[in-house]
Amino acid sequence: MILKTFMQPSFLFGFLFILVLLIFSYHWPAIFDVNKEKSLELLTNKYNDEGTVIAVPPFKPSDVPPFGTDVAGKNLFYQIIDGAKYTILIAFGIAFFRVFVSVVIALYSPKSKISYLDDLVQATLYIPGTILAYMLMTALFSKQAMEPMSSTKLIIMQFFILIMIGVLPLISTFSNEINSLLNKDYIVSTIALGSKKTYVYYKHVLPELTEKLVLVFAQQMIQSLILLAHLGVLAVFIGGSVTLFMGEPLEPIPFPIPIEGEWAGIIGMSFAKLQVTPWAVLFPLAFFAVTIFAMNLMIRGIQNSFEVKSRNSGVIK
Fold first, then answer.
1. Domain ranges of the chain
2. Are 217 and 227 in contact (CB under 8 A)?
3. Is 272 exposed, middle or buried (0-12, 13-18, 19+ CB in 10 A)?
4. Which keywords annotate this record (predicted)?
5. Are 31 and 24 in contact (CB under 8 A)?
6. d(CA 100, CA 214)
7. Distance CA 109, CA 103 (A)
8. How far apart are CA 40 and CA 27, in angstroms?
9. What is the mean pLDDT of each run of 10 residues along the chain (317 residues)?
10. Residue 173: which of 216, 109, 208 has the closest Cα?
């Protein structure tokens, strides 16, 4: 089944793009033969041979090719390439734990009649996930300001928030799916013959859920990427931020600089200066869009492989 999925051109193209991007993100200093710390440091003013300032950050793509710099003067190309691994792996982690927690809860009590669950799910659908995440994140940052916590603990709590706001609808989805599977004749017969619950789940339910799990996981990755981009625009960064003061000494302008290097942080720190540095927002947004496009190609390939499997099963029958 896995081999057939990889034989789908759309899945293969999307998978290879993301894989190459991740490999490139981990090894770009060696590929370009540059020092990582030096390449990601803030660029100061440019001077001519006489020591006169000829340019100040942010620099245009024509001044610092290929993408220019952000408002703080950091090379945008190196930032985007280095931030790819953080962005993709964060989205992967959020999607994985959303699906994992939802399936575990749904398998634990698939037939429980929680009367308010569907109503609660419907209510949450009318609250955009971005707004809910923003409210909880800002409350978390306020707590951190009063009671400082380590960056690791902050990231874990942020992950918990981003995971849990997507779990409730998935519990309802998987519960309904599992209930429909448990009502199938061959599974009902298996249970009636005395098979243990764990055996039925492992042998029959989980294999039947495979297609749904894979598709939902890929969809959740896309939703997580979009959510991260929205939070970046709202200047809510994974891992928090530090404030950089720019401008005149007597009238400094504060800019939040994300501690982690994911793409949403790159967008967020430059969004307030969109009219001045549009390239600092458009380039990371383009990488977001292309990555989401690659994920959509993978979803299409997965769907095609399952359709081929269904047709072949129908022919055999």
1. 2-316
2. no
3. middle
4. Membrane, Transmembrane, Transmembrane helix
5. yes
6. 11
7. 10
8. 14
9. 77 93 93 87 69 73 86 87 93 94 80 56 72 90 84 89 88 81 76 73 78 88 93 87 68 72 86 84 93 93 79 54
10. 216
Give the pair of three-digit tokens for residue 288: 């977001």
- Tell me if 71 sits within 8 A of 273, measured CB to CB: yes
CA atoms in the 13 A half-sphere facing the CB of 293? 8
**Taking the CB of residue 191, how many other CB atoms lie within 10 A of it?**
15
For domain 2-316, give the CATH number.
1.10.3720.10
| Among the listed residues 190, 182, 234, 221, the one whose alpha carbon sits nearest the alpha carbon of residue 97 | 221
* Angle formed at CA 264 by CA 266 and CA 220, multiple of 5 degrees: 160
Tokens of 65: 């090719």
Which one-letter amino acid corresponds to residue 90?
I
Query: Which of 132, 143, 137, 131 shows the shortest CA–CA distance to 159?
Result: 137
Token pair for 213: 């799990």
Residue at 267: amino acid letter: I
Closest CA to 165 of 115, 130, 141: 130
